Amino acid sequence: MVRAYSQEHTYKHPWERVTAASWRKFADPENKRTLSHILEVDTLNHKLDPSSGKLHTTRAITIHAPGPWFVRKIIGQDICHCVESTVVDAKSRSMQLATRNISLQKFIEVEEKIRYDPHPENPNEWTICKQETSIRIKPLSTLASMAEKIEQRCVDRFQVNSAKGREVMERICKYLEAESRGISFRS
C-alpha cells in the first residue's frame, strides 16, 4: 500500500526570495533545532545548462530514519540517506525538487516532490509551493504486517516536518527581505 498526500502553501514573498530561502534552509545554523531530523546536507554536483539556462543540482541529505522509534529498532538503522535533485529555471521562474531515499529501500520507499512557482493571483509578490509525498512499506519486508500503521506514522511525521520547513522558509524570507532593505534582522 502507498500513502500519499499533497499540500499547497502560499508564501507572501516573491519567487526569487523564496527560492533563495530554499537554498539556505539547511545551511542556516539557527534552523538546526527546528529541522533536527536533518543531520547533514552535501552538494554532490551542480551544472548550469548553457542552452536552456537551467541549473541542475544534486544533493545528498542524511536524516534520522523515518517512522516511529520501534521501526528504527526493527530495521537496525537510525539514519537514512536521501538524494535531492533540483532544477531551477530562472527564465520561467520555476524551481522543482525531487527527493527520494537511497538507503532502507528494502523496507520503505519515500519520494517527495516540491515545486515553487509565482502565484497566479499575484505573480510578482507571492509564490505557490506544491508538495507531493508518497510513502510505501515494502510488502515482503520485516515491517509488512504493520505497514498501514507505519505508513500513517511516517505521513504524520512528514507533515510535522513539512510545517517546520515552512516555518524555517518564512523566517529566512523575512531575513532576506530585511537584508535587501539594509536592515539587520534575526528572529
UniProtKB/TrEMBL annotation:
<dbReference type="InterPro" id="IPR006797">
    <property type="entry name" value="PRELI/MSF1_dom"/>
</dbReference>
<dbReference type="InterPro" id="IPR037365">
    <property type="entry name" value="Slowmo/Ups"/>
</dbReference>
<feature type="domain" description="PRELI/MSF1">
    <location>
        <begin position="2"/>
        <end position="181"/>
    </location>
</feature>
<dbReference type="Pfam" id="PF04707">
    <property type="entry name" value="PRELI"/>
</dbReference>
<protein>
    <submittedName>
        <fullName>MSF1-like family protein</fullName>
    </submittedName>
</protein>
